[in-house]
From TrEMBL, chain B:
<feature type="region of interest" description="Disordered">
    <location>
        <begin position="73"/>
        <end position="97"/>
    </location>
</feature>
<dbReference type="Pfam" id="PF02686">
    <property type="entry name" value="GatC"/>
</dbReference>
<dbReference type="GO" id="GO:0050567">
    <property type="term" value="F:glutaminyl-tRNA synthase (glutamine-hydrolyzing) activity"/>
</dbReference>
<comment type="function">
    <text>Allows the formation of correctly charged Asn-tRNA(Asn) or Gln-tRNA(Gln) through the transamidation of misacylated Asp-tRNA(Asn) or Glu-tRNA(Gln) in organisms which lack either or both of asparaginyl-tRNA or glutaminyl-tRNA synthetases. The reaction takes place in the presence of glutamine and ATP through an activated phospho-Asp-tRNA(Asn) or phospho-Glu-tRNA(Gln).</text>
</comment>
<dbReference type="InterPro" id="IPR036113">
    <property type="entry name" value="Asp/Glu-ADT_sf_sub_c"/>
</dbReference>
<comment type="subunit">
    <text>Heterotrimer of A, B and C subunits.</text>
</comment>
<dbReference type="GO" id="GO:0006450">
    <property type="term" value="P:regulation of translational fidelity"/>
</dbReference>
<keyword id="KW-0436">Ligase</keyword>
<dbReference type="GO" id="GO:0016740">
    <property type="term" value="F:transferase activity"/>
</dbReference>
<comment type="similarity">
    <text>Belongs to the GatC family.</text>
</comment>
<keyword id="KW-0547">Nucleotide-binding</keyword>
<keyword id="KW-0067">ATP-binding</keyword>
<dbReference type="InterPro" id="IPR003837">
    <property type="entry name" value="GatC"/>
</dbReference>
<keyword id="KW-0648">Protein biosynthesis</keyword>
<keyword id="KW-0808">Transferase</keyword>
<dbReference type="GO" id="GO:0070681">
    <property type="term" value="P:glutaminyl-tRNAGln biosynthesis via transamidation"/>
</dbReference>
<dbReference type="GO" id="GO:0006412">
    <property type="term" value="P:translation"/>
</dbReference>
Amino acid sequence: MRLMSLTAVELGKKIKAKEVTVTEAVTAALDAIEAKEKKVNSFVTVDREGALKRAEEVQKMIDDGTLTGPLAGVPVAIKDNMCTKDLLTTCSSKILYNFKPTYTAEAVENLEKAGAVIIGKTNMDEFAMGSTTETSAYGATKNPWNEAHVPGGSSGGSCAAVAAEECSYALGSDTGGSIRQPSSFCGVTGIKPTYGTVSRYGLIAYGSSLDQIGPIAKDVTDCATILEAIASYDKKDSTSIARDDLKFTDALVDDVKGLKIGIPRDYFGEGLDPEVKEAVLNAAKVLEEKGAVVEEFDLSLVEYAIPAYYVIACAEASSNLARFDGVKYGYRAKEYEGLHNMYKKTRSEGFGTEVKRRIMLGSFVLSSGYYDAYYLKALRTKALIKKAFDEAFAKYDVILGPAAPTTAPKLGESLSDPIKMYLGDIYTISVNLAGLPGISLPCGKDSNGLPIGLQLIGDCFKEKKIIRAAYAFEQTREYEHSPLA
Amino acid sequence: MANIISDETIEYVGILAKLELNEEEKEQAKKDMGAMLDYIDKLNELDTTGVEPMSHVFPVTNVFREDVVTNGDGSEATLSNAPSMKDSGFKVPKTIG
């Protein structure tokens, strides 16, 4: 039996039925990593010893009836920007090359309570800044569908690990599309929940008002199940929201009759690859045939989301990343003269190019004389974007479009032109600005055999609607395993 | 390029951001920042008069708690991550001449 080709929920069932032991499941994941890492480089850290030890503990708790949930004993990979107690957490940066957190992120702790076994930490763009996982200080991750291509980013390691079947599922984080875009490029499914649904406690901050943790897996059922496990109100995150209904798996229903789906015309204009366009519109047709009411509309303001995002995200990043100064943790420059020079040298040597670029832009837009013109202007634009979505959701249950304008680009093609790379986030970024939930799931492949992702966007707190629509669409097609699986 | 970043500006940003750039990096940073600001200037096409800046999508309030210790003493574990330490404290270079 190929344990890693099962979904997380399928594997969980087999473990519960005693057809598979937790140690067998975890060993299968570790063996897959051993066999594939040279090709894909999804992981920064693999915790072989810890995972095998934990497998035995989890097995005992399953056997004595303490753990009964669907994810008990299932191996998971965690993006390397989530703190894991005593386990290296680098954010794929040199500046945190040796950082071992003293506590575990709330979302990860929730997973552990559900009986998850962490097998390792996945590669990412440094501090989640990037769209290709090429800005990692620990080498680029490759796309399991074609190793000459990027997996997307910033959660590229998590998505590639799921697609290469090195783990049963993974956690990622999404600030401007960092779960949905790599999910699209790697042919897997990922959800960015409504802002405030999953605690950010222990998630190393990039753009705090935009960051959300979410699940990445083979299908919608897994994602709904994982989201149910990680979502919680947490006093330790002041932006955490106490939600009434977190039973996301209740929405796994194959029925979209009467569901109102809006297709923004502005998502299908210039820059969209024709093959992506065709696959996404075909998905809309499938949902229409299943009884959904599909209509085109003008969302407006789409082209303003990226500039507004870069002002806001970089401003927040410049503040959030001030803590990396060579005093409390991580890298410290070897040679310096005095305290300030130590800060400067440490940061200049410890951060990569893209991170420095964003910190500098953020410092500039927050500086006196420019704060109103750039930062406040971006926050006003954000308010307008939110309003445009409010108006759309007064008419539609779900907004349907592509997750990214193209399929995965080749390695080495994106970093030389940052603005072009930023434009790749055009369909995902506004969702973060408006705090909305979004899901990306496979809906086809291009002529090069690279996966295409369908994005479904819901109103705040309406994850169930997008899960339902995604689940109904998914029932019409088989999951395609990547060549590296 | 409409936005020309001067040497003084990039120097000032370096101070704010606590980053030290060599000459080559400085030139690149000037170019990159200028290009980004040109792109960001697109926002000026929008009339945002009377629009309140939105920092959070949902109303956020401070979360208060009583000033009671709920976790144990983690100072040793915390300090074990420090690049340099002395007498249960973080050690930094001399700050006063």
